[in-house]
Amino acid sequence: MPIFDQEVLQHLGSGPFEDSAGGNELILPNYDGFGLVNLTPTIAKWLGAGALPAPVFNHAILDQFEDRYQNVVVILVDALGYNQLIRLMEIGKAPLWKARLERGKLFPMTSISPSTTASALTTIWTGAAPNQHGVIGYEMWYKSLGLIMNNILHTPITFRGDVGGLSRAGFEPTNFMNQLPLGQRFSHYGVESHAFLPAGIANSGLSQMHLPGSHLHPFSAESDLFLNMRDLLNTPGNKPRFLYAYWSDVDSLMHRYGTYDLRTTEQFFDFSNALFRLLLDGLDECVKNETLILLTADHGSLETPVDAHYDLANHPGLTSLLTMAPTNEGRMPFLYVKPGQMDNVIEYFEHAWSGEFILLNRQQVLDLQLLGNGTDHPDLENRIGDLVAIPLGSKYLWWPERSNTMKGRHGGLHRDEMLVPLFAM
After folding, report:
1. Quick one: 172 exposed, middle or buried, by C-beta within 10 A (0-12, 13-18, 19+)?
2. Which of 177, 240, 272, 301 is spaced 20 to 30 A from 349 at the CA atom?
3. Which CATH architecture has domain 6-301+415-424?
4. Which of the residues in the chain have pLDDT under 50?
5. Which pLDDT tens digit goes with each residue over 358-376?
6. CA-to-CA distance for 132 and 111, rounded, in angstroms?
């Protein structure tokens, strides 16, 4: 059974956290050939579309593929972790994927850090690490506008029921990044880029950031998605093509019910049936011979039982030491500390959550290259915070002014969050 886990996992590890109690559960993101950041640079190589900022996959992965493909298709299932997919195959809840292993290949690779959607998808659509493209988290301090922004909704976090509100403050999504989007890079080499997105987010600010130069295909259901992809691939064309599809339901159900809840598992089961029946089985034979289809994810997830002990509303002694609410994700909070209060914040963590978080200061995050290597975004340091809290086990922090009902999360360095599948067919 061609699962290439040992070939990859021997290159990954928890680095300086290995000797910490619980630190061996952590995996650092890999930016040099075994990570999500290397996916679209490798696709560019396969399609003859030049180089992207990050390197291609390491030869341990790359050698398992052909040198060129006419079509490369990426099916991205939000929050489908590598360990989760392995478990689903073992318990009979992903039978089509298990059967396809006889003719396919499965690799683990790391997500980026923070292991969250806005950062990961921006990495895919730029071929650059978070430290380079600057989108570092779900919520992020944006100094030039003087506010904390939601990187998915493109709105200040204090705005309720608002989407895209930053545009009213002069924010222009297509000018936000300092990296050239994938579609524009590919078009310079005569490669078509197609993005299939749920209709509700197809024209969101984040999508506008990512998709200049790409053909947008909104969809409303699995049948809509896979039959349109099938028809596009079966339509003769002379140009190499990159097709990307984003599926969000596994992530939505995971947050609400948990990673391994039956509702989450059954959704992926139904999604997989539609993918195999409508897309794979419907491709012309000549198209199959020149097409590579990849299943992957932006990040995995971890079940995190709701616990009031991690709700910052119950810790005014800590919040009084901060200049504003934390940013990023509950599984990797960025803390902005009042002047002279750094030691007091560290002491608070040791007293309230002894042995449950690893605290790094900004320089340690940069030295560790936790967010990537290469040239840093000019505003990167402002966006990180003074301290970064890395939770161990299933710990987290919660600070939104609403009830905490999330039973599954991501954003941290736990192996269940960090390892994502690369399933090649």
Report:
1. exposed
2. 301
3. 3-Layer(aba) Sandwich (3.40)
4. none
5. 999 999 999 999 999 999 9
6. 15
